[in-house]
Amino acid sequence: MKKRLSLRFDGFDVLKWIIYLFFFVFLIIPLFSILLVSFTGEPVNLFGSLTNEKILSSTLKKLSNVSVEAYTSIFTGGSGYFEALVNSLKLGVGVALLVTIVVLPIAYAFARTKMPFKPFFAAICTIPLIMPTFISSYAFVLMFGKTGWVNHIYQALGGEGVLFDVQSMMGIVLVQVFFFFPYALWPMVAAFKICDVTLEEASQNLGAKSWYTFMRVTLPLAMPGIISSMLLIFTVSFSDFGTPIILAPKDLNLIVVEAYREIAGFFNWAGSAVLTIIMLIVAAFFFWLQRMVIKGKEYGTISGKPTKQKLNDHKGAVSVLTAYTALVMLVPLLAVGSVFLSSVATTWGHHALPDGYTLDHYKTIFSTSGKNIMNSMLLAGGTLVISVIISTFVSYFVVRRGASGLDFVSSIPLIVPGIALGIALIQTFNTAPLHLTGTALLLIIAYTIRRMPYMIRSTMSSMMAIRKDIEEAAVSLGASSLVAAITVIGPLMLPGIAAGAILVFVTVIKEASISILLAPTDWAPMSLAVFQNLLRGEYYTACAMAILIIVIVVILQALAKKITKDQLY
Amino acid sequence: MGSVRIEHLNKVFNGNTALEDVNLEIREGEFFALLGPSGCGKTTTMRCVAGFETPTSGKIYIGDKDVSNIPANQRNCGMVFQSYALFPHLSVFENVAYSLNIRRFYQGGMGTKIATLAHLLNSKLGKLDRETEKKVRDSLDFVELGHLADRLPGQLSGGQQQRVALARALVMEPAVLLMDEPLSNLDKKLRNVMRVTIRQIQQKVGITTIFVTHDQEEAMSMADRVAVMHGGKLVQVDTPTALYSNPVSRFVADFVGSSNILQGSVKETNDVGETLIEIGGNRLLRSSFPAKKKDVEVIIRPESVRLFTGDATDSTDNILDGTIELSTYLGPTIRYDVKVGDLQFEVDTIFEAGNPLLEPGTKVKLEIDPSRVVII
Ligand SMILES: Nc1ncnc2c1ncn2[C@@H]1O[C@H](COP(=O)(O)OP(=O)(O)O)[C@@H](O)[C@H]1O
Ligand SMILES: [Mg+2]
User: Which residues line ligand 1 (CB under 6 A)?
Assistant: First the structure.
């Protein structure tokens, strides 16, 4: 059978190619060009090479000079890159292990025991997810810094100096453990829930003690879920920028901070390119590992029989687990509390409590930082619009027309740390013909790409819930597929789109790495304002702004949740 | 309105042949059923007509127009889906109005386009014109759902949803109405009601209809003509009565109702054109059908056999002697399994009050009218 080349383009084909083009220009080319830079050691202008002969010849000349020197020099030392990589790996591994240990009992308590206050604990678990990490880090400074209130209490109890040095690897690890654990908690709860209870019962019927059953049956069954969330935590910790930028001391090299300094401080393209590529490779590898672990296991949750599980109500075990859970949850709670106290304090640091209370900081941010708030709203709004359009159509193409290529391309951002994406974009759009670095547009595009996989996941699931024959019915009634998509599929997907869109808005508002790296001064969003205030020592206004961000995020997230719950049909 | 002509239709799905050289001519105003077991290609045939599948080869005409290259939305085929595929977010009224709005959207000027699109996206926006409003009302009244116009589809019963789907398809005055197993989601009682309803509506509108089903009773009771499909091919296209009394193959005979199927060999053709066939144990049967070869299959419907006891007749014309092995009471009829030598017969008789069931072991005679002994 011969395939004829169809030249009949409908509106959809055009749209599909536009979306491909978007990802190609703003994701593939930047990553590719940063790869080239890592070999040439000099910036290359790929778009310029297409339009200008001179640039092309200079690019070709640079390409003839490729060397792996930049990579080998990592190991020969001097640059400190190797140290940075090792430190980052240590950090990721340490945090992943610690989080797993900390969360295991909590996950078990949630999934398998009659622990009281579950909804309350679950609500607290959202705190870490709504707080940008650099704010959480500053909260830790407020608590454990030299003048932190925890240390005041510690000294009052007879302690000497500080409990620990918060500006250290230790501080970074602790912040990440207490603020990333929810990423691992819910997958682990799920893993415990889907374990085949009949096996456990069999074990207990054979006379095994509960503890033995847990170690030899329950835990091994939940293992894939546990390992997968461990790998996820590693990637999150490895790519996190907010914590180290606040807490890393000068002598602690971490790859994200190093890459940021190379680009923002020294405009060292070669160095930042190499670091970017290394980050990408590590993140991609662990992402791949995680996929391998959960491969084929995801469906267990869907197809598995919802067996009624008997919840453990052993009094002693439940009270120990409850106390432990409460203790862990207390840390993020106190962190938010500290930021809030600081935002209403006249001054704070001489005693465990602020010296006085005032609302001046809020007045200040509304009078002097009104523009940042506005910027955040506009940037988030712009990102939301582009994200909604692209992700809706991508899910349509993937679900309805089997465009697996788009599925793949649009999930690439999952493995690109924010800093890496930022550096790649800056490098590529630094000069004509597409001189976008320093514009709000590039910022919006960066946010869009970074959030795309999550947005698509949300639109895709509502797309899959719409039967194909609904669309065919619209077509048989006279609508072209495009009109059918707009008039029928669109409205049906609306709840999913709306919920996803709000979450995009939220992430943009709390996004740190992209904002810090890419935002031009005119367009500084709230998160950047907080960051700059912290750098300038305006701690109280920074805290007031942080509280504002948290409040906005909480409201929007509640709204998203309500929309998803209120699905009409 | 229009006839439908399908010529040499072939459809291959990644190397699997779903349709093989299907040729059909469906007359204007005809109620035409596609009947066959699951997977035989009924849906594919219909989707090719609707334009949802592109034939691997072959042509499709609606009226006199070759529609093979016309996109689905311009073929003017009204479709009723197995799941009804009503738009869950639109009221019954807006569901039915959809095709009219779409037409207005395509045909109107810029202002109308924008107003109609707004209305399609949110039915509170933009007003419908009088004519559309009236058409929708009329067609809802036609299916007796006028009082439910403001409900959402989710608030209707299965039968009501079915009628909305019909009204929605009919309001656009399509050239052809296509229905894919439209009754399979209803319970048995409602199914029987809807059979009549659909048939009546089709008659009133006089629309050419293609009706896909795997249920022979449905096809036989509703359709003017039935096409029996098997393994991607058409086996027989005929009126229900012809299909029943004169199946062209064992498959058709079996599919459109239970049959006694016997192996036989042709002995001779007598002077009145009847065929004499020898079946198991040197018994002879006369049939008014001509035989084309020597070894044939003989099909006899259970109700074509007259069963009696003793010597109620002395005729020896096409009569077999047998013994009852099993009697089954089926309500209005009684099914007897009768052993005739090595052969096994199923015989249906009308149950008459007062006549007792014949016990197994009873000697009986079976009389078969030659015109109902079908030779394949
Ligand atoms: N989209 C498709 N892709 C691949 N095979 C298909 C597709 N649709 C139908 N088929 C195959 O074509 C054959 C006929 O299917 P269908 O027309 O749906 O049968 P019916 O409606 O009679 O049950 C089946 O073997 C089915 O598996
Ligand atoms: Mg079918």
Answer: B 13, 16, 18, 36, 38-44
